[in-house]
Amino acid sequence: MLRLPPCEARFPTSIAEAVELKAKYGPEASYVAGGTDLYPNMKRRQQTPYHLIDVRRIPQLDRLEVDADGGLIIGAGVTLTRLIRDGRVAAGWPVLGQAAATISTPILRNMGTVGGNLLIDTRCNYYDQSYEWRKAIDFCMKKDGEICWVAPSSPRCWAVQSSDLVPVMVALGAEVILVGPEGTRTIPAQALYHNDGIEYLTKKRDELLVSLRVPAMGTAKATYQKLRRRGAFDFPVLGVAAWIRPNGGGTVADARVVIGAVGSYPIVSEAAAEALVGHALEDDTIDAAARAAAKPAKPLDNTDFTIGWRKDMVAVYVRRALAALR
Amino acid sequence: MGGRAVGRYGGTVGSEVGEVSTTDIPPYRPTALPPFSIIGKPLPKIDAAAKCLGRTKFADDIVLPRMLAAKMLRSPHPHARIVSIDTSRAQALEGVKAVITGSDMPNAFGILPVSQDEHALEGDHVRFIGDPVAAVAAIDEDTATQALELIEVSYELLEVIGSIEDAVANPEPQLHDYADDGNLHKLVHLEFGPVDEALERAHLVQEDLFFYEGSTHLPMEQHAAVAEYGGNRRLTVWSSTQTPHYVHRALEKVLELPRSRIRVVAMPNGGGFGGKSDPFGHELVVAKLAMLTGRPVKICLTREEVFYCHRGRHPVIMKVRTGVTADGTITGMDFESYLDGGAYGSYGVASVYYTGALQTVTYQVPTYRFRGVRAFTNKAPCGPKRGHGTPQPRFAVEVTLDKIAERLDLDPAELRLKQLQPADSLTANWLKIGSMGLRACIDKVVEGSNWKTCFRNLPYGRGLGLACSSYITGAGLPIYWNSMPHSGVQLKCDRGGGVTVFCGSTDIGQGSDSILAYIVAEVLGVEPMEIAVVTGDTDLTPVDLGSYSSRVTLMTGQAAIQAAGRVRAVMVGPVAGKLEVPAERLVFAGGVVFDAQDPERGMSFAEAVALTETATGTVGSVGSYRPPKSPGRYRGAGVGPSPAYSYSACIAEVEVDPETGIVQVPRVWIGHDIGRSINSSLVMGQVEGGVYMGLGEALMEEMAYRTNRNVTHKWPSMLEYKSPTTHEMCDVTTYLIEDPDANGPFGAKEAGQGPLLPVMPAVANAIYDAVGVRIDEVPMSPPKVHRAIKDKARGKEPRFGPSGTPTVRWPEVTYVPRPVDGGDGKAHPRPEPAGTGG
Ligand SMILES: Cc1cc2nc3c(=O)[nH]c(=O)nc-3n(C[C@H](O)[C@H](O)[C@H](O)COP(=O)(O)OP(=O)(O)OC[C@H]3O[C@@H](n4cnc5c(N)ncnc54)[C@H](O)[C@@H]3O)c2cc1C
Ligand code: SF4
């Protein structure tokens, strides 16, 4: 069996205590929630924190409630299963359950949290391998090495943003609340991500993700379309989140199309939104938006399937997502 | 089947081979005809409750006092010479009890006598990433893992042979010096009858190229082994192996310890599928470490290491040219296969032959040529995976026939039905066919799927495809040359009425332990649950060669029938005397031995045993089985013969999304000629399991490497190596066809491998029916289907598949006159082609 590296677990019961512990141990420490992303990574020696700061006993991270403005507050420690089963979420934000239900497997969803899902490591077939495997290929720049095996002449890492909830949260205009040694900040979900496979988060090292706030849907509709090999287990090789607010006359007042898993961060397609706004969701409009959305997608050979096909699929899936919102 | 009389079943037990001379015992002849009290019933497996309750002990569940943990250091290079190994720092680590390297175990081993090319730890030459070079025993796994990092190995890198094309182009550096030619491990060239003439005269010659990607077994249980070297200086090895007998032999050879001092216990396997059929380095390593430390030692491989053990499906490029008459009758077939064998021999020599052996047993192929080559490459070694070497050529044959049917505007089912190989016949390559139920299989699936109405008539995107297959029920010859039985069974009856069956077979989940219980229970008229089954233990059980080649039910079954029949024969004397009825009138059923004419006159089975024990002493017996001799006598004739061939026909329904190329298989109809079900639910389980595994190969499984990146395995993990989940599994309608075979126990044939074979070509043919493109390559993954659909739209050839074969210098042909030529089964010089005047 692959074994965890030596480690010790801590169980803070308040935000302050957690942040203090994290600041104290710095790079030797890691927050952990369900551990479904972190522990496999530790077994592969991609991360080897000695101090594990388990965030699941902090009450604020366990909140799941609707605030006075009708927004949904999701504590970072809420499990995916709880999100899926919650009646208020299902009624007010059905796309969240729709997307969360495509994540991994029921057992992993019982452990995995919303916060953990927003922060999971970027993925790559050259990186998500055991230490011995990576040694055989001589490592890569994301961990222990110099070069990018996917794009050897590239100065950067192209590991893939692979969370299913991330594109959805960005499309819904969610905000995230972070608490660190320097205080609390609230930023749009989109601002949490950075187009780099290694520095994929703008979150500061010791900041704790406390919760998310998802605005009320109002008249808007949203959907998530996921491409993967199998009906369970698999990370997305493409995820399309589409959000649309119609105006009274049957045209699109506002739109967000976010493409996941074809870059190191969720790609917000302004061009697709432009193609949609002011038009009705007719085939031509959808086609134009789909073509526009597919342009910036740059899949590389570091996930399942072939790159040409994954690129071709972006337009198909955007089209399907938008058609589902008619 | 009317021609095969009742008396032939069971009566053949040992009759074609030298029977052990206990001739004073009248042979017991089980009737092959119903009614049976146990045979055929869907009874629970005898180990079902233990498995479901988590009580079955697997190798990794063994915990012994003072047990050490072992870990193996593996090569990070695909091809290298070992210059030196320094283990001193590892030795010095606290908690480390022993460190060994290749020099501690220099003797080579290998499953086939002709390929003794592996070492428990490679001493001077590593041939793939994952080849073991050193091992550590320590107080726990963490310490052992830490110690591995302290072992310093210096390597001198060698040029890498990354593909079969590389192997053809680069005879040097050789992976093994015993190869037939450079890095070409094995070359085969066989011809049966004048193929070229037949093709020349054919109405149509269909020529096709196919590629079948490699895949691995993916058993849930990772290989594990525990060894203990006792105070009495006897070694015990418990292992998740399908072949304890071969492990026994390898241990003897490598450890230089007589087999009489070694006990191998095959633990229940959490799945095998052929992946645990070779002796492995880790089994030898724990044995050596146990001997050195005097403490029990355990190893459980990581999933990545299981991928490196591999021995799975060979990737094969195939070229097939088939000549047919205007009505689709095959006149000749010229078949070539090119196997990427990986770094070691394993079963590879047999695998090459298997890619050419069974083409002839489904349809009549009057003239046949086979050329095959297996290359050594710097990858994990390939070997036998469910269907061993035959799913690849079966894919080629069944797809090529579908194309022929289309070109000639014939119904693919009719095309096959009109030229089935007859029962009780000899094929052109001298295979002896017994019962043959393929016609009924085809009829059933054609009817069940509404083929006649739906084929070629479903809306665009939906389609049906048909394919058939056949598989051996046990290999006719043993792996190492000997004339001893392939399977032995020993029976012991207790005064209390209990019966214990001892047999060397290994239950890998297929239910072989249960089969022994059912068969003995049927013969002795007791309940299966009253039978204790002891298997796979070289100290306790007579040899059975192992759970491979679909041999276990037939061979252990025949041995069990013989053993139980002999016990019965001993018991009838005293019982008949006591009951004062003629011995022939005694019936053993329901736990009672009684007079058929006066059922009130009888005694319990326990009383009967006690009576017999009083009269003749301890009640027990042995039985054994050796397959009939095959008529083929040419070099290579050893692969293909079997006591009986199972047959399957399959129709798959697919839904292809033309925009994405994603293929879904909602439903499969499969007919399987099982001969006779010993337990119908176990047979259905095997059939459905075969369909499941076949779907995986058809749609997604790929044992793929990054040849340009040091030949690393692309995804040695259960997450990224894609294998279907329950979401991808289709509905299966299974039809069991019972066409009893004279050589099978109660007429039974195999079910474990055959039903996998037609699934891949059925899916390929269905994709063509759905969207009009040919995917001549497995797996038929979405990008390939999508590409072919796009090509079709652009007016290009609507096909995805290989475009050529490697260029190989074939050896001189071995020409074998066929039965119709009046041949004798041996090779002879090829007669001059008629009409060439030379
Ligand atoms: C087989 C398998 C399949 C999977 N499939 C999918 C899939 O299809 N789609 C998908 O999106 N994901 C998938 N996952 C990933 C993972 O299971 C989920 O994303 C899950 O939601 C992660 O949550 P967690 O609580 O387990 O995260 P953890 O592993 O606990 O944490 C993940 C990361 O976030 C950090 N972290 C966690 N909580 C906080 C916090 N409150 N503040 C600051 N940092 C924090 C941790 O330090 C760690 O770096 C899969 C995982 C596995 C093993
Ligand atoms: S994209 Fe390149 S650098 Fe990043 S993980 Fe993959 S191989 Fe490494």
Structure write-up:
The complex is a heterodimer of chains A (326) and B (838). With 326 residues, chain A is of the alpha+beta class. Chain A folds into two domains: 1-121 and 174-214, Uridine Diphospho-n-acetylenolpyruvylglucosamine Reductase, domain 3; 221-325, Enolase-like, domain 1. Chain A is built from twelve helices and twelve strands. In chain A, the strands form three sheets. A five-stranded antiparallel β-sheet of chain A has the order 4-5-8-6-7. The N and C termini of chain A lie far apart (50 Å). The mean pLDDT of chain A is 97. Chain B has 838 residues and is an alpha+beta fold. Chain B has three domains: 59-158 and 222-268 and 276-309, Aldehyde oxidase/xanthine dehydrogenase, a/b hammerhead (Aldehyde Oxidoreductase, domain 3, Alpha-Beta Complex), CATH 3.90.1170.50; 188-216 and 312-477 and 633-800, Aldehyde oxidase/xanthine dehydrogenase, molybdopterin binding domain (Aldehyde Oxidoreductase, domain 4, 2-Layer Sandwich), CATH 3.30.365.10; 484-625, Aldehyde oxidase/xanthine dehydrogenase, molybdopterin binding domain (Aldehyde Oxidoreductase, domain 4). Helices cover 25% and strands 23% of the residues of chain B. Chain B has 19 helices and 34 strands. A seven-stranded mixed β-sheet of chain B has the order 3-5-1-12-9-10-11, with helices on both faces. Chain B starts with 47 loop residues before the first helix and ends in a 23-residue tail after the last strand. Residues 1-27 of chain B have low confidence and may be disordered. Chain A binds chain B through residues 1-3, 6, 125-126, 128-130, 132-133, 135-138, 149, 229-234, 304-306, 308-309, 312-313, 316, and chain B through 74, 76-77, 129, 141-142, 145, 222, 300, 302-304, 659-661, 700, 706, 709-710, 712-717, 719-720, 722, 724-728, 781-783, 786-787. Iron/sulfur cluster is lined by residues 124, 126-127, 140-142, 148-150, 157-159, 197, 302 of chain A.
